[in-house]
TrEMBL record, chain A:
This protein's record includes keyword Lipoprotein: yes
Primary localization: membrane
Source organism: Pseudooceanicola nanhaiensis
Protein name: BMP family ABC transporter substrate-binding protein
Span of the signal peptide: 1-23
Every ABC transporter substrate-binding protein PnrA-like domain range: 35-314
Membrane topology, from the record: Lipid-anchor
Entry-linked Gene3D superfamilies: 3.40.50.2300
Family under the similarity heading: Belongs to the BMP lipoprotein family.
Localisation: Cell membrane
Gene Ontology CC, one term: plasma membrane
Top-rank taxon: Bacteria
Matching InterPro entries: BMP_lipoprotein, Peripla_BP_I, PnrA-like
Record field: transmembrane: none
TrEMBL record, chain B:
Ranges annotated as spanning the membrane: 12-33, 53-75, 87-104, 110-128, 140-160, 200-220, 241-264, 302-323, 329-348
Matches recorded under InterPro entries: ABC_transp_permease (IPR001851)
Main location class: membrane
GO molecular function: transmembrane transporter activity
Subcellular localization, as worded in the UniProt entry: Cell membrane
Membrane topology: Multi-pass membrane protein
Keywords in alphabetical order: Cell membrane, Membrane, Transmembrane, Transmembrane helix
Cellular component, GO, one term: plasma membrane
Name this protein carries in UniProt: ABC transporter permease
Species assigned in the record: Pseudooceanicola nanhaiensis
Amino acid sequence: MTLMTKFLGAAAAMALSAGAALAEPALIYDLGGKFDKSFNEAAFNGATKWAEENGGSFRDIELQSEAQREQALRRFAEAGLNPVITTGFAFSTPIANVAADYPDTKFVTIDGYVDPEAHPNVLSILFSEHQGSYLVGVMAGMASESGTVGFVGGMDIPLIRKFACGYAQGVKAVNPDATVIANMTGTTPAAWNDPVKGSELAKAQISQGADVIFAAAGGTGIGVLQTAADEDILSIGVDSNQNYLHPGKVLTSMLKRVDVAVADAMAAGEDLETGVKVLGLAEDGVGVAIDDNNAELVSGDMTTAVEEAKAKIIAGDTEVHDYTADDSCPALTF
Amino acid sequence: MERMPAWADVVLIPLISLLLAAILSALVILAIGENPVEAFNLMVEGALMRSAGWGYTLYYATNFIFTGLAVAVAFHARMFNIGGEGQAMLGGLGVALVSLYIPWPHWSLALLGSCVGAALFGAAWAFIPAYLQAKRGSHIVITTIMFNFIAAALLNYVLVSLLKPVGAMDPASANFPAATHLPTFQDMFATAENPLFRGAPANVTFFIALAACLFVWLLIWRTRLGYEIRAQGFSESAAKYAGISPARIIIIAMLISGALAGMMGVNTAQGEAERLVLNSTEGAGFIGIAVALMGRNHPLGVLLAAILFGFLYQGGAELALWTNIPRELIVVIQALVILFTGALDNMVRMPLERIFMALNRKGA
C-alpha cells in the first residue's frame, strides 16, 4: 500500500514537473555574454519582460566555448524545454546539426539562418539592419555641420559591414558630398568588448573632422559614445536604446527589436510558427529611438526626412543596399 | 640526496594543490549563495557519470593533450612556447585546406592528410619565432605571443575574405565534405539499444592524442634527439661543449612543439565543427601551459592533467546549464585550479619538502 502510494506520488510529481518543464522556454546567449548592454542584453530584457508579464520562467545559459553551442541545444531539448531560443548568427550551423534529432522541440535563431525546407522545426529571425542604419544615416547627414561623419564597427564581419553600408547610403542620400569614415575595432571577437579602442577610434575620427559617429560595436560602442560626449560631438547608439547613456549627446539609437522577437517567441511557446521571419522597418523590427533624452537634438526637418525615408523604404521606392546580399557596398569602400 | 620521494612530487603536490583550489572555489560558490556540494555533484554527474559527459570531457582533453605536449616538448629544451594558441589556429587552417580542397575517398585517409596538414602549418608557424630565437636571439616568449595575434589576424583575413561561402554571415569556412567527417565515439561505441556518447564531440582524434603522448615519451627519453633536447635544456653551454648545435635543437624542438599544437586543429575543425570557425582554439593553447606545468612536462602527467581540465570545462558547462552561477565565476573556479597547480606550485612544494627533510633526518 505504502509502496503503491509512493509510486503514485512519484508518478504524479513526474507528470507535474514534466508539465512545468514543457511550458518553460530556454534562451542561449552568444559568446558576447548576457550583459553586453546591447544585443544579448536586449534578448535577456525581452525574456524577463515576458516572464514578468506572464508569471512564467525561463532557463538561460551563457556559453564559454564553441563546442557548447550544440551541447546547450541538446541538453535543453532533452530536458523538454520548448522553444529553445538562440541569439547570434553563429548558431545557424549548430541548430541545423541538432534540429532533426529533436523534432518536437522548436528552435529559434535570431540573426542566424537555417534552411526551413530541411528543418521544419526551426524559426530563423532576421533583421533588416541596413534599413535602420539608413535612417540613422539620414539623421547623421542632416545633423553634421562639417560634412564628415564616422562609423565605428565592432569585429570586421559582413553583418557589421551591412550596418556601415546602409548608414553611408543614408548619409549620402541627404548630403551627396559627405565623407563617411568607417573603422572596424578589430579582427577577433575581443573587438566586441574593447571600449578603450572604441574611444581611440572615435578620437581619430574626430581629428579627421567627424562630428557625428555611429557605433555598431557592442560593448566597444560604450567607449565611442563616452568620447563623443567628452569631445562635445554627437554619437549614435545601436541595438538597444542607448540615448540615456549621455542625454543630449546621443543623436539617436538604431533599434533592433531583439527583445520583442524573444518575447513574442516565448509567448507563442510550443505553438511557435516556424520558417523564416524578416523584421524590417515595415514590421517595426528596426527603427530609430526618439525620447526625452534626444528630443532637442532632433529638428522638425529631421523627423520629416526620417518619416519620409521610412515610408519610401517600406513602399519599395528606396532600395537600401544589403551588403550581405553580394558582399559589396556602392556607398562605401572598406 | 633527493629532497622528497618522487611519488610525493608527482602525486601529493598536485593533489594538495587541487584540494586547496577546491576549498577556495567552495568558498566562492558559498559567497554567492549557492550550495558548493550540490555544484560539485552537478559537475561530477554531468562530466563523469554520463557517457555523453565523458564524450565532452575527452573532447576537451584531446585539445589540452596536444597543446600540453607542445608546451612540454619545447620546455625540455628550455623554450617557453606560449604560442600554442596561434600554432593551433594555423593547424586548423591546414586541416581546413586539406579537407576542403583534396577529394578524399575515405575518412581514414582524410585523417592522415589533415594530421599532416595540421602539423605542417603549426610547425611552420612555430618556425619563425624559433629561427629568430636561434639565429637572432629574439626572446621566444615575446615572439611566440606576438605570433598569436598575427595568427588571429591572418585567420580572420583568410576566413572572411577567402574561405567564407558567399552570403554567409558566420566568419567560417564551408562545411567539409562528408567523406572527411571523422567517426565520433557515438559512431564507434553506440549500439541501437545502448546509445552511448549521444551527440558528444569526442572522436577518433582522441586516440591520435594518446599516440602523440607515446610518441613524445619515446622521443624525449628514448632517442638521441630527445637526449640532445634535454641536454640543451639542462645547460646550453654544456650541450655546446658536447657538440650539440643549440640553434639546431631550438629549431627542431620548436618545430615538433608547433606541429603538436597544430594537430589540435584536427580535433576542433575536422572532428567537432566539421568546418573551420574563427574561434576554434578558444584559449586551449594557453590552457596547455597549465596542463604541462601540472603534468611536470611528462606525457603521462600531461594526459592526466588534460583530462582534469576537460572535466573542469565540461563540469563548468553543466554548472552554467543548471545553476545560476554566472559564467565569470566558473572561469574563476578554473583559474583557481590553474593558479594553485601552476603558479603557486612552490607554496605547497616548499613546506612539503621541509616536512620530508625533517622526516628523513629523523629516519637517518
